[in-house]
Amino acid sequence: MRIDTIQPAIGSNTPAKRLGRGIGSGLGKTSGKGHKGQWARSGGGVRPGFEGGQTPIHRRLPKRGFNNYFKKVYVIVNLSQLADVEAGTVVDYDYVINNGLAKQVKDNSGLKVLGTGEVKVALTVKAAKFSATAKEAIEKAGGTAETL
Q1: 105 and 145 in contact (C-beta within 8 Å)?
Q2: From CA 142, how far away is CA 138, in angstroms rounded?
Q3: Which of 5, 46, 59, 113 is the most exposed place for a label (fewest CB within 10 A)?
Q4: 96 CB neighbour count, 10 Å cutoff
Q5: CA within 13 Å, CB half, 103
Q6: CA torsion sign, 37 to 40 to 42 to 48?
């Protein structure tokens, strides 16, 4: 292989259209723009979304929904995910994230424990929120549910 033999991939370079070079080229006279009108003029055409002066679709359709900037988003863990945890462990937000029990949530408001599944060992669970069934199940197993 020599530097003087290197060529671009076939089809990657296309030759420029030579406009207005005679009738035989197929792009002579009007250069493929037809006769007169907005699209034939220099700088002709309209911006994207322009509908000839009628009210555009994005203004005809009603606005919908809103974003609640004050909503609270919790990292959610079920009791079934805590079933394999050793007895006496303190389960909090950091423990859950570090052990891969839940994915980290952007702008989270803490940890929420839900009652799906069951816990058989005594755990100390520290979270921002508990469902009633989760709190009951943790305390029934001999653990404590601390609300932060």
Answers
A1: no
A2: 7
A3: 5
A4: 22
A5: 3
A6: positive
Amino acid at 90: V
CB 92 within 8 A of CB 123: no
CA 11-12-17 angle, 5° bins: 80
pLDDT beyond 80 at 136:
yes
- How far apart (Å, rounded) are the C-alpha atoms in residues 94 and 117? 21
Looking up tokens 């699209």 gives: 39
Q: Which residue has the tokens 């079933």?
A: 83
Place of tokens 């909503």: 71
Question: pLDDT tens digits for 78-106?
Answer: 988 888 888 888 888 888 888 888 888 77
Answer yes or no: is pLDDT of 20 > 80. yes
